Predict the structure.
Amino acid sequence: MSVHTLSLDRHAPRKGTLRRIVARDSVARRVDWILLLAALALSVLGSVLAWSATRNRTEINGGDEQFFLTRQLINLAVGIALAVGVMWLGHQRLRAAVPLFFAFSMAAMLLVFTPLGTTINGQRAWLSVGGYTLQPGEFAKVAVILGMALILAAQVDAGDRGYPGSRAVLQALALAGAPLAVVVIDDLGMAMVISMIVLGILLASGAAIGWSIGLILAGVGAAVLVWALGLLDDYQIDRFAAFADPSRDPAGVGYNTNQARIAIGSGGLDGKGLFQGTQTTGQFVPEQHTDFIFTVAGEELGFIGAGGIIALIGVVLWRALRIARGAPDLYSTIIAAGIVSWFAFQCFENIGMALGIMPVAGVPLPFLSYGGTAMFAVWIAIGLLQSVRMKRPLSA
Amino acid sequence: MTNIPETGRTSRITIRLVVIQILVFSLLLTLGGRLWFLQIRQGDEFAAEAAGNHVQQAVQPAVRGSILDARGVPIADNETRLVVSADRTELSRLPDDGERVLADLAELLDIPVEDVTHQVRLCDAETPQPCWNGSPYQPIPITDEATTQQALQIRERAEDFPGISAELTAVRRYPSPDGANTAQVLGYLSPVTDEEVEQTEETDAPLLRSDQIGRSGLERSYDSYLRGDAGVTRYEVDKFGRVLGESESEEAEAGSNLVTSIDTRVQAVVESELIGAMEAARATHDPISGRNFEADAGSAVVLENDTGRVVAMASAPDYDPNVWVGGIATDDYAALTDEDANDPLLNRAIQGQGPPGSTFKVVTSTAAVNAGFDFDGGYNCPSSYEVGGQVFRNFESQAYGSITLGDALRVSCNTVFYGIAHREWRADGGIDPKENPDDWLFRTAHDFGLGEQTGIDLPNEAPGRIPDRQWKQEYWELNRDNWCEIAETDRDDYEARIARENCTEGMQMRAGDMLNFSIGQGDVLVTPLQLASVYAALGNGGTIYTPQVGRAVISADGREVEEFAPAEAGRLPADDGTVENLRNATASVITSGSADWKFGGWPQNEITLRGKTGTAEASGDQQTTSWLATYTDDYTVVMTINQAGTGSGASGDAVRRIWEAMYGVSGGSVNEDAALLSEPHRDLPVIDETGAIVPQLGDEEDEDRGEGEEGREEGEDEGTQPETQLEEEVAPPFDEEERDEQRREREQRDREARPTMPPPPPPTPERSDEQEERAEREEEGGGNDPPDPGGTEQEGRREPLDE
């Protein structure tokens, strides 16, 4: 019999609040504190870095040096509230709401193309609602994970078959294809993230390996096709390749990556100190509080700080993978694995572009980049992970 | 909720999750590795880049130190001028790259548009001079001669002249005190290049983009002293150039002043006498070539015997050093680099080298004594000397019978030295030399400091050459292929015959080579400075000093004085007796030898003058090079003129006038008051309490000087009058009165016309190796020729030796 049951027996009588909290089956004992603390540390650190990056930018902070710090901490609070909500509801109970959630996300993404949409940095990916801008694409990532988990796990969790069949895989791909089709035109970063989420989920779902390989080949084939057909203008190719050779787009992306590299490189072992970064203070790196937030850490906190961030991300991913492995059913496994794929690729892409080993694409760094929607989405994901964790068998 | 047991995790999914885990952590490791590479491995480079990124420098240029003569009179200082400059960065932002602005500017400044556009274009491999060699980010000076009016226009109509500025700036000035040009000794400045800035970045004295640095002469040798430290204010700026933070600021520190041993009064006399002698030579007929002497180049050096300090150093043709100030103008540069200009940038006193002719015989005499010959022994001086079927003649086939070495020097008898050289050559094994030949001649020449740089504090000094066995071998190895190639042709001309001989035997030291060497002809090369340093050593009793122009460096505030002590380079390879013998023999050259016809009436009892004449063969159809080395106990004066005939004939009068000016000799008597420099400057100029260096022209001196100056300035006529008389007195008995008369007239005319500097001559980068190369080339033609039967020594061709 499970320990679960035993503990219930032993403490069957009413307990004091403290006892309830520390009880083996209590929420407090079931939550993955390491994951929670790592995510919280990253989020707070991100708020401080965004603060450093915007202190002097009166044109966007309206004269309030701490404007972005405050805003991001509020975003964090909202995000944590969302996470708690998700935990309270539980990912299993949300199962029923997944189709609705997915539909809403898709609608919001399409709304971007209506007059409600806002174009920022050449990307039409924002919704402007009552003075706030939302990025529906961030929620779409969660929606894709939940939707695919729902479809792929349905038969398996019902015990009908060991692994998702072709039909389920095709349905799941069709589902993921919808948001992908919306963003693929002008949001390369989002398209890449969704593709990697799909790949990760297909792998984790146990579907025939051919699907995963096929997907990779399809991606490579599409890239070759785009290249061969000359669908991209030279400047687009240059922009894409500028991460490796900044001279190909010296005024645009090349400049950005070069300045980003200087910022990070000049940080050295222990950095120039918070608020002391000359690259940061001088605003040489564009989008530094959002997409290039890592350069602030690199310059001001040095190898110790920036390496620490990578380590903390490693902790988050380690805990998430642990949760995936310990998940009681395929639905939960896929959710956890999907989140791992999402976080891992997005971190790699974002930090990689700051370090000059990945092409520049507008992808936020989970927890750290300034931005409400992104913060909400990652904390919803944390809520989902915790929810999965809390449902695992205690012996696991 | 689930009915899958906890062990329901299938192994396939677990494996897949492990794969995902491995992938994920590989990605993170990649990031960590890259981060380590950027921050730890390359961190320093990026730190430097970041530093350059956000710092803007405002440079306060340091005032460059002055160069002063021995009395403290500035020969290079600074003046404030209105400099108009163009900023390429700003011009390039204009739609037409600033073309219209530059055209307007050219019109305003009244200079050709092309000049302006040429000046602001950047130098690269394909762009000919003039072009901008400095940093493209630094304002490029267009002119430093803007009028206040023009400057005002530029400033008031700033919107019409974007990128153009007009600022008061300290610029270099070469004021030519006393009329002393001193161009090649001073050198010149030009802007730093990007490479130089990079190279000095890590050093203690980094160059700034706006710096000018010395490119030749004293400006280059003492650049680090003269330049000072620019004041730099560093502002931290953001990407948009807005000043962010605190600035760090360094005061400009003016460069130190350099006191030289040059006396500009003597320098002026030496320069004008050199040019005068050249002009006189050009007006003189050369019976050998059948045309007037070319006298296309010359140089003169005055040394202090007891210190090796340079009192004067002149090289002709020369140029006005001020043409370099503020960037050289297009036509000035063209004039300097024109082929006909004959390398005015070259300091021929240290960079011009040639065979020294008979002035070399003091070396040969010393070698003879060292080899065991008795200085006072009897040596036969026949009219000619035959070796291996070749006849080496004396000048005009004169024969003197049995004479001492001293007399051989006095009358410049070649055959005596031929005989000695030939005996030494045979003693060393002749054409088949023994294992360790004594090589007294070569060894002694090296011991005199010849064949290597004297080490003077001026850049690019030529080393000269002693054509010893080692050189012969190396030269043969270098040219063998070439010679042998010619040798294999069917040609039977002179060149081919020589090549054939050289191809197989070019490394041999032949008797003819030795004979030529003994009288300073053939392959031996010396610079005028080397020769002067040899004679200065005879003048001081045997110590060879390293010549120096710089005497002391005095900091701008006058507090720190770094004096350069005379540097002994060695001793003459001669015992005291030999030195005394040589001094006596060279004195007799003046009183009764090859130069006596130019020095008649010299107050030898009061000021003992000694010397040696020389006439060096040149290759091809070039006329002979004249050499005249003279010295007293205090000073040495050496003058040489290319293609000008004999030493005494071409330079005798000029050198005599230099001595007269220095010692105040006039009409055969000495007037101490009129002397410019009867004894060397012993003390440095006085530094007053403000740190300024006071030119030593005390009240009394001022008066004296006033008079003296009058005499010198207005005229050269006043000055020449008595000289002309003098000349008459000593006019060589054999000279046709008429021709002499004409020449004197011409000389006088020329001197009167001389106050303006000679036209700025030509360019060619001053590279001594180029000279060297040319010398080599010439030699290939004629260097290894058997001695010209026409007489290797033409000393006294027209001037009989007055016994």
